[in-house]
Each structure stands twice: as structure tokens, then as C-alpha cells.
Design goal:
- With 900 residues, the protein is of the alpha+beta class.
- The protein is 43% helix and 16% strand.
- α20 packs antiparallel against α21.
């Protein structure tokens, strides 16, 4: 080994003094560049862990694609005159900066010295005084970067990734000061591989590294083309198990590899190759031997990325295996979980924070990056959601303006209640009491912020008269606007927006340039989710406010026992376009109107419609056709007659309310109840109607994104990018690796089980099935039978959203496209609903949902159909078995089922 080291040292000196393959001399005296052949162990602070590993492997004689590192000195040189802040704004500052000409010249010279062409550009972060700090998975990688302009742009994006939300949160959690960190950038020639994959020199399923030299297994996974197909989960790779001691192949699993990714994009694997092994026995053993040599060099088990091209294996990256006892498909979940915990800890207030899934899990459970980027801005203080509150006289805080009120936790959307409390008046000491919410997490579903004087500041008391003035002014403004805003919506705002959408639909996007298409997309987002939404959402605010006032007044006047009667006062209301949609679908089934007529009016809707990746019914009408068939086969009452019955029931409830004795309360109290009832009934239908119109604009947004997807041959992957990355796409940047990383990360995070309510002081219990705040329902409602077997308690308590009692056979539905149980009078049990689920209510006698609230879609439709509904029963679709007999008590908010 010593002789080999001397030889490789001599080789390195030789390489630094001769011309490269295309005749360009590489200057070894550059200030900011280090070739792989120049890197030694002391260079970790300059090139980071990733750069150091590639340099050491190169000098040890392993086949590493040629490349160089742009050192941390280049990063510091560029940022010395700026002060990136410890949040996402730091990334914007870096992206807007100019790279100094001296550095540009060095980067371009080094790029040309490795024959230019396509390269991979990877971040390699490091921290002063903390050389072993791990930054895995927090910075960006860009593949197939080609040309000087793309390269320089990718370098800046790598630097900017040091200031991503996750990276900043990690440093806060690890107590790493921002001034200590720096970023090196690795630039490496791309290998157009015939086969590529990953190799673990120790089976990661092992409970520990091998204790005896030579024992254990090597795991190899491979597929044709570039490795992104494996990482992204687009293809199931071939799986090989090799014995470490003899290199005998112990197991082979050959997958059907239907697609492959090349430098030119995704293509179908030739049929003759799909079922063929991607590696032969000799190649498998040679690769395993290579893995053991790399392991011996580092002295620890390795996770290795490799490629095979032109008859030889190349090592793309090697890193130590630090986690054992997991399946290879789950490798990295622990690290991702820890990152999520660190991110939440950084976001939490010092006094504590609560996150609630609210009704969001019903509307947008697990958004893709493009949808999340657009919706997060919409739900910020400067988006349509925040501007609604500003228009009504509230003053959202700076934190709400910058970050919005939503957070993404393990791929799922949650309301940050600390920021939600700042939605009304900046610096006002409103809070959601953690102790109270822990006693009853149901309160976090529809939380009510309270004033805590202990949290007030001197600045608050100085501005106290101003806040009193703003609160009074806001209350008066709401009352003034509420008087006739339904008329304003119906006569002016809705028709104007519809005309705008119809005009925009006529635009031929294929004739626009890339920049014009981006401008049009941004226009449609602004017009739909800011300009229009800030008015459309006011009706939802008025509906919730009026119903809350009505319920409070009824309880005050007649007592708590009459609270449930308020629900009967909001059924059978005219003007709900979702209910109208269901009636129209029934008319199609009866042959009264055509399917084309229906799609012309409702073709912009779909299942899970807030996810932009979901095709609209105008694109794919198979679900609508299936629902029409169900309507044709149904023996249930004409929904028009059902609606009339609901209207009659509401009128009876109104008469009953008028005849109730009000005791000591005056006529003024009755007038208040009558006034709030009128406003509630006027504005309640607008919640679904506003969504109908927002989806018109949403369809335009999707149309523009699909055009981007078509132009850049992304095959649906446009939705794994963010709105901010579309300019990179236009500039020709290859984002395949970034997309693959996000797909894999999302797949892994969604495996983590989350409770409805998350508390910042018990974050480590996220995903813990034994946690008090984890699998809440299954733990609270299970007990043990006499024989020691688990059984389910008869009562599953939840939130009542529609009154009445009904018994039937459970129809557990996870997707509305699933075939429902054939019989009528079933209890619909589901995670949540949106308008696409409405036809399934036709034959249902009751509704049970895992998520939702009084104003959620399922609750509204259940009341319209006059069936009892209980929501917020976590894991209801698991606790209740398909075909089981259950009773739904919408009066008490309880679901009863037989004991096992």
C-alpha cells in the first residue's frame, strides 16, 4: 500500500504539470479552484466533505469522473460585502449578487480544462471548527449543466442553498453560528452511463456493522441509464446480494425496468432489455470487490453511488453508512425525520407553538412542491388570504407576511397557530394556550385565540389606544361590508372574474415564448389567488363569523341544549354550486342534459382539486362517467325532491326557534338571533361557490404549467419544481437530480404517521405510534377483551357536524373513484371529502370522516342531504371495517360499532 501511495503521489504531481486531453493547461496556482488531483486531507475546510472524498478517491487511483472544487474561499470572497440573514432571504440576496470577474475567469478556465460539456454541480458545505458536521440532504445538486452561463448560475444556486429553510433550521438546532459555515461547489464531468445504481458494502438491514472481518453481505441495486430513475422511484432496480467473504452471488431479483433516464431525458427501455439483468455476474463481483476496496480505504462501511460506461465502473460518490437495522428502501428516513424536527424547533416560538391540520388535510393533504409554493404565498399576509383580513381592517404581523400561516410538516400541511394568532393585529398579545389544547386537542381544530397580558411588550402598551381604535374600526367595517356583500359578489365580482377566465382560455399558449408563458402564469396566479380571492374569501369569513354569533346567541338565550339545533337552520339553502353540481350530474344520468353540457359548466373541477397536478374533469371525464352510472343504478329519491325536503325541514326548525320561550331575555336578543341567522343563511352557500370560481382560475394555472411540462419534456415532473425555479428551466438548467431528490424525500416523509395536532415541546413523538400525541384514536379507543385480544370500544367520539341518528353498513372509501358497496343506506367512512365525493352521498345514510369541521365540504353536503355526520375520528378508515354495522349519532358526536 505504501508503494501504491508513492506511485499515486507521483501521478498527481505529473497530472498537475501537463496539459489536459484537449490541450488546455490547468494552472495549479489558482486562488479559488482545486482540481480533484490537488486535494489532500487538510483541505476539508476548503472543499467540504463531498469534495474531499472525491479528491481522496481520485488520488487513490479509483475511477472518478474528472472535476474540480470551487473552494469556500470563493463563497466568502463573494459574500464578504453582503450579509445574508439567517432565513430564506439570504438565498435571494445571493441569487441577486454578481460573481466577481476574477472568480468567473478561474471557474471558466477550470471548466474548459475538463473538456467543458455536461457537468454535475453539487453543493459541499463545511463549518469552521466543526469539520465533522453533517449537512447531508440540505444543499442542492444540478445535473446536465452545460455551458458557461448555466454553470455560473448553478454555482450561485448551490451557494444560495446554504440559506434554505431546512439548512438554516439544522444550524439553529445544532447551535452552529451562521458565520462559521461556508459552501464549496463540486463540478464534475457527467458520465453517460449504460448502467448505474447504488451499493452498500454492508447490508443496511443488519442490526450492526459486521463484527468479524469478511462476514456479512454487500447489497447492489442497478438499472439501465442514469441513477435518477432509482432515486426518484420511477423504476424498481435489479437487486443483488453478494457475500462479503467469497464474493459469491447469494441472491438476484431482476425487475422489469420499463423506463430509463439518459442525458437527453426519460425514455422507454427497449422491450428486449426490460427483463434482462442490468449487470452480469462478472460485473456484479467486480463492483462488489471495488466496494470492499473503498471500504478498506476509509476504514468503515460505505454507501456508494456508481456508474458503468464504456466498459468500466466510475465512482460518483461515497459516504459512510451510519444507520443499520433498516431496509434499504427506508434508508435515510431517520435522517429526514431528524431534519423535520430541527426545522420545527427553529420555527417554534420560545413560549411554544401548536400546529393543527385544521380543515387543510381535507382540502390539500400532501401538496407537491409547485402547488405548495403557490398555495403558501396565497395563504401569506400578502396573498389573497391575508389581504382578505387586511381589507376587513386587521393588521397581520410581519411574520405572517413573510412566512404565511401554513407550514409543511413531513409533506403535510398544518396551520401554525402561533402565526395564526398574529393574523389579526401585529404585536397584540394573542395566543393559543398550549396547556388547554393539550387537555383537549379537539379545540385546535377550530381554535380561538385568547389575550395573554403576560406576553405583552412595552411597545404594545404604547400602541394600546391605536389597537383599541383598530378593533372598533374593524368591527364596524365588517358590519358595513357584510350588509350587502353577497349582492356585490353575485352581481359584480363573480361575473367579472368569469369573463376574465373565458377570455384567457382563448389564448394559444403554444405561440408564446418561454418568458411570455412565465409572465402569463404569474398573471393568472395573481389574478386568481390575490386579486379575486381576497374578495371571494370575505364571504367565507362572514359565514363563519355569523354562524358563531348565531350559535353563541342561541345558547345564551335558550341554553346549551339548543346548540345542536343551529345545524338544522343551515340546510336546504339556495345557491350552493357544489350541491347544484350534484343535481346536474343526476340530470345527466336521467338524460335531461348532456354530459358535454355538464363538463362545460363543471369541467374545471376534479378530485383533490387544490393539487395542481390533478387532471381536471375536462381533461379526463372517466370519474364523472362512473358517478353517472351510479346515479342511474340508484333507487334513491330524486335529489331535487331531497333538497325540497331539506328546505322544508329548515323552515320547520326556524318556526320552532321562533316559538321557543326566551325567558328573561329581551326582544333585542331575539332580533340579534334573527339578524345573525339571516347573515348565516345568506353567506353559508358562498363557501363552496367561492371555491367553484377559484377553481376556474386554478385550471388556467394548471394549463400554463402543463405547457411548461410539454416544452421541457418533463412528463409530469413540472409539479416537483417550485415557481421560483421556472426561470432556471427557461435558462436551460437541467433539474433532473433536484426532481429525483424531492420525489424520494416526499415518498419517505409521507411514511411518517402524524397526529392531527402537534406540540413543539413533544416533537420527538412525531411518528411514534406509542406516543400519547401520535396514533391518538387507536390508542384511546382500544381496550382488551377477556381473552387478551384487542377489541374496539363501542364508542368512537368525534365532532358532530350534522344532526340525526342513522345505522347502516360501513362503506370505507379511500378514493371516490373506488367502486362503492352496491347496497343503499350505507355509512360513508372516508378520510375527508371535496366536491368530487358529493355523488357518493346520494346512497349514504350517514357520514364518518377522519378530518373536517363545521364548514368543511363533507359537513356542508351532509347537512344538505339531511344525513348525520361525525368528523375528526382519527384512523376511522382503519378502526371501522368495510361491511361492519355502525350507528352514527350526529346529535352526540359519537359513532357506535359492535365489539370484536
Amino acid at each position: 500500500m505504501k508503494i501504491m501511495s508513492v506511485f499515486h503521489g507521483m501521478k498527481s504531481c505529473f497530472l498537475m504539470s501537463v496539459k489536459t486531453g484537449d490541450g488546455i493547461m490547468m494552472n495549479s496556482n489558482t486562488k479559488y479552484i482545486k482540481r480533484f488531483t490537488e486535494i489532500n486531507r487538510s483541505d476539508l475546510p476548503l472543499v467540504g466533505g463531498k469534495g474531499l472524498n472525491l479528491g481522496l478517491l481520485t488520488q487513490e487511483g479509483f475511477s472518478i469522473p474528472d472535476g474540480f472544487c470551487i473552494t469556500t474561499e470563493a463563497y466568502r470572497h463573494t459574500t464578504q460585502t453582503m450579509t445574508p440573514s439567517g432565513n430564506a432571504r439570504g438565498a435571494s440576496i445571493l441569487l441577486a449578487s454578481d460573481i466577481k470577474q476574477e472568480l468567473i475567469d478561474e471557474i471558466i478556465h477550470a471548466y474548459n480544462a475538463i473538456s467543458a460539456g455536461r457537468v454535475a454541480v453539487r453543493s459541499s458545505a463545511t463549518a469552521e471548527d466543526l469539520p465533522d458536521a453533517s449537512f447531508a440532504g440540505q444543499q442542492d445538486t444540478f445535473l446536465n449543466v452545460e455551458g458557461e452561463s448555466q454553470l455560473l448560475d448553478a454555482v450561485k444556486h448551490c451557494w444560495a442553498s446554504l440559506w434554505s429553510e431546512r439548512a438554516v433550521a439544522y444550524r439553529r438546532n445544532q447551535n452552529i453560528d451562521d458565520s462559521q459555515i461556508a459552501m464549496s461547489v463540486v463540478v464534475q464531468k457527467m458520465i453517460d452511463s449504460d448502467v448505474s445504481g447504488v451499493m452498500f458494502t454492508v447490508n443496511p438491514k443488519s442490526p450492526h456493522p459486521p463484527l468479524i472481518k469478511g462476514e456479512g453481505e454487500i447489497i447492489i441495486e442497478s438499472s439501465f441509464g442514469l441513477g435518477e430513475a432509482i432515486v426518484s422511484g420511477k423504476v424498481s432496480p435489479d437487486h443483488f446480494v453478494v457475500k462479503r467473504d467469497s464474493l459469491d452471488i447469494a441472491e438476484k431479483i431482476i425487475s422489469e425496468k420499463q423506463l430509463m433516464i439518459t442525458q437527453n431525458g426519460e425514455i422507454k427501455t427497449p422491450e428486449a432489455k426490460q427483463a434482462q439483468p442490468s449487470l452480469n455476474d462478472e460485473q456484479i463481483q467486480k463492483l462488489a470487490q471495488l466496494g470492499l476496496e473503498i471500504e478498506r480505504f476509509y476504514g468503515a462501511p460505505q454507501d456508494i453511488e456508481w456508474a458503468f460506461a464504456e466498459g468500466r465502473f466510475y465512482i460518483l460518490q461515497a459516504r459512510p453508512i451510519t444507520k443499520f437495522g433498516v431496509r434499504s428502501s427506508e434508508f435515510g428516513i431517520e435522517e429526514l425525520w431528524q431534519e423535520e424536527i430541527a426545522t420545527l424547533q427553529a420555527k417554534a416560538d420560545p413560549e411554544g407553538t401548536v400546529w393543527s391540520s385544521f380543515n387543510l388535510s381535507e382540502v390539500l393533504p400532501a401538496p407537491l412542491p409547485m402547488t405548495w409554493g403557490i398555495v403558501k404565498k396565497f395563504m401569506s399576509g400578502r396573498g389573497g388570504f391575508g389581504l382578505t383580513y387586511r381589507d376587513l381592517g386587521f393588521v397581520p404581523g410581519k411574520d405572517v407576511d413573510e412566512h404565511g400561516v401554513l407550514d409543511l410538516i413531513c409533506g403535510q400541511v398544518y396551520f401554525n397557530l402561533s402565526r395564526e394568532a398574529k393574523l389579526y393585529f401585529n404585536e397584540f398579545p394573542l395566543e393559543h394556550n398550549l396547556d388547554e389544547l393539550k387537555k383537549d386537542p379537539q379545540k385546535a381544530i377550530y381554535p380561538k385565540a385568547t389575550v395573554n397580558i403576560k406576553r405583552s411588550t412595552a411597545k404594545f402598551w404604547l400602541k394600546f389606544p391605536y389597537y383599541i381604535y383598530k378593533m372598533i374600526a374593524s368591527e364596524r367595517k365588517i358590519k358595513r361590508i357584510r350588509k350587502d356583500f353577497d349582492r356585490v359578489l353575485t352581481e359584480r365580482i363573480f361575473p367579472k372574474f368569469r369573463q376574465y377566465v373565458e377570455k384567457q382560455r382563448q389564448i394559444d399558449l403554444t405561440k408564446l415564448s418561454d418568458r411570455q408563458l412565465l409572465d402569463k402564469l404569474n398573471e393568472w396566479i395573481e389574478e386568481t389567488l390575490t386579486v379575486f380571492a381576497k374578495d371571494a374569501l370575505k364571504a367565507t369569513v362572514f359565514a363563519g363569523l355569523s354562524y358563531n354569533n348565531l350559535e353563541t346567541a342561541i345558547v345564551k338565550c335558550f341554553g346549551e341544549e339548543y346548540k345542536e339545533r343551529a345545524k338544522a337552520l343551515i340546510v336546504g339553502l339556495e345557491g350552493d354550486l357544489t350541491v347544484d353540481m350534484n343535481l346536474k350530474m343526476w340530470e345527466v344520468a336521467q338524460g335531461r342534459i348532456s354530459l358535454d353540457d355538464f363538463l362545460n359548466e363543471y369541467g374545471h373541477r376534479t378530485v383533490g382539486e387544490f393539487e395542481l397536478a390533478q387532471p381536471r374533469w375536462r381533461e379526463d371525464d372517466s370519474f364523472v362517467r362512473k358517478m353517472i352510472e351510479i346515479f342511474r343504478d340508484s333507487e334513491e329519491t330524486d335529489p331535487v325532491e331531497r333538497f325540497k325536503a331539506q328546505k322544508a325541514e329548515r323552515q320547520r326548525a326556524e318556526a320552532e326557534l321562533n316559538n321557543l320561550p326566551s325567558g328573561r331575555f329581551s326582544a333585542a336578543m331575539r332580533q340579534q338571533i334573527a339578524r345573525e341567522l339571516e347573515y348565516t343563511q345568506r353567506y353559508m352557500p358562498f363557501r363552496e361557490t367561492a371555491k367553484f370560481y377559484i377553481m376556474l382560475g386554478y385550471e388556467l394555472i394548471r394549463k400554463a404549467l402543463l405547457e411548461f411540462d410539454r416544452r421541457f419534456n418533463l412528463k409530469g415532473d413540472i409539479f416537483y419544481l417550485t415557481p421560483e425555479e421556472l426561470p432556471l428551466l427557461i435558462e436551460g438548467q437541467k433539474l433532473d437530480e433536484l426532481i429525483s431528490q424531492r420525489r424520494y424525500r416526499r415518498q419517505q416523509l409521507l411514511k411518517i404517521d402524524l397526529p392531527e395536532v402537534i406540540f413543539s415541546d413533544t416533537l420527538e413523538e412525531i411518528g411514534n405510534r406509542n406516543s400519547e400525541f401520535g396514533m391518538r384514536s387507536s390508542e384511546l379507543f382500544q381496550n382488551t377483551a377477556a381473552n387478551g385480544q384487542p377489541r374496539i370500544s363501542q364508542a368512537l367520539p368525534g365532532l358532530s357536524v350534522s344532526a340525526g341518528v342513522a345505522e347502516g353498513i360501513a362503506n370505507v372509501v379511500l378514493d371516490p373513484a373506488d367502486e362503492p358497496i352496491s347496497q343503499t343506506n350505507y355509512v360513508l367512512v372516508c378520510p375527508s371529502t371535496d366536491p368530487a365525493w358529493t355523488p357518493l352521498f346520494l346512497n349514504a345514510c350517514a357520514l364518518v370522516m377522519e378530518r373536517g369541521g363545521m364548514l368543511s365540504h363533507g359537513a356542508v353536503v351532509a347537512r344538505e342531504y339531511g344525513i348525520p355526520a361525525v368528523v375528526n375520528i382519527k384512523n376511522a378508515t382503519k378502526l371501522i371495517k368495510d361491511g361492519e354495522k355502525v350507528e352514527v349519532d350526529g346529535n352526540k358526536g359519537v359513532v357506535m360499532k359492535s365489539e370484536a
